[in-house]
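Data availability (excerpt). The following record was deposited with the supplementary files.
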Amino acid sequence: MFKPYTLDEGKLLVKLARDAVSQYLRTRRIMEPPKELPEKLLKDKYGVFTTIEVFMGRNKRGELRGCIGFPQAVYNVAMGVIRSAIAAAVEDPRFEPMSPEELDKVTFEVSILSPLELLEPGNPRDYLNKIVIGRHGIVIQRGYYSGLLLPQVPVEYCWDAMEFLNEGCVKAFLPPDCWLDEDTSVLIYEAQIFREVEPNGDVVERDLMEELKVCQNAHGNKS
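Predicted structure:
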């Protein structure tokens, strides 16, 4: 299981994401990682995604406000969080740029990604047994097309592996069954996910396997 950071370190990363967006919306400047951060956050290199959601209540799924990141290590983790958070706030093409007034109405979630792993080509239907919902995220690639879905997405929608692959293809602007094509590459990865439970509130580490059980129970133990 991919868990490079402690909860305390995760709290620092989520606070960093919020602080980076707050400062950028006020000054239009990209902050530098604070020097007092733990050394590993300034040196480690992983893929990073920041998700911003409109807070709808503690026991309700938030409404997406922005989600952008780097599938592979481009910056150190601290700078990756800063850059991805700002991009999620003002560069997600699905939404208008955030305003400072929204900061108290949204929650921040930071996902730290393990290195991408290419599933061996062969019989594509074997992918269904290799992708574990609640553990893996996917990247679908074919030619110039590429689509990434974080591991929390199929849990939140209670998808099975086939639905996950289909939706990954759609995210890449490809036909839903493109993963069955030998010209399509399917990559998997894991993620450690930290999120605010409410705006400016406490930060927790998500347990996707436990969330999946709740989803499956609510949907009649779908598997």
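Summary of structural features: The domain at 117-188 is CATH 3.30.1490.150 (Dna Ligase; domain 1).
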